[in-house]
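User: Structure with pyridoxal-5'-phosphate, tokens only please.
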Amino acid sequence: MPNPAWVTYEPCVQLAGGRAVPVTTKEEDRWRVIPEAVAELITPKTKMILFNSPSNPCGAVETHDDIRGLADLAKDHNLLVLSDEVYEKIVFDGMKHYSIGAEPGMMDRTITVSGFSKTYAMTGWRMGWLIAPKLIFKGVNKIQQHSITHAVSFAQYGALAALTGSQEPVKMMVKEFQERRDLIMKLIREIPQFHCDVPKGAFYVFPRYDNKMKSDEMAMYLMDKAEVACTGGSSFGSAGEKHLRLSYATNKKNIQDGMERVKKAVA
Ligand SMILES: Cc1ncc(COP(=O)(O)O)c(C=O)c1O
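Assistant:
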């Protein structure tokens, strides 16, 4: 699994009795999971490749070549793939999202997870979906039935409306997110101590900053001095140190005002 990555993956792997092996992703690769880097870490004990594109916290989007490379590795080494595609609709600059489960020969070894939280702004409704081979699905169902039992019924009606209704609001929001991304990138470029490549998806920027503070200290400092909540990059893994994750899932005025306060506090 990538490092940095969304905080929940590693505990989930541990809970399942596995060991998460980090694939360090790099700013200069736009934080993509490079198949060659994964290949170097595969051992006879490797069971699964877990990745997330578009990604939280970096906004990285895997290219079709990356996806094909990861699929080849999975087939060559007989691995399962868990692909978290929860930001699948939120891609910018004409980039396309590719599902690894749709690559030839991958359907039987891919577990695709996604949900309503991001595309339909239904965070907190606890609604999502999973696509998996039958054998995996049977195991998942056994645990899910006796822990979660079922999704809340009124939320299911909401999800049904989201899926069957017009998808125009999704298009509008993706356009809006792209504008917010452009705005926050412009404001970040005005802060000499912040450096960031343009993220291609999701709704986060992951700038590197120049100063001695650790990223969790830096996040607390900004909370205190700028009244802006962001997350220290090290929360997502060691490779996130000296970075901050800022979400732009808020309106443009908040982004503008918040970043002005960040600029002042950093200065
Ligand atoms: C990469 C990623 N996967 C999954 C989720 C979880 O989404 P939910 O539990 O709301 O469906 C999040 C939420 O932030 C996320 O960033």
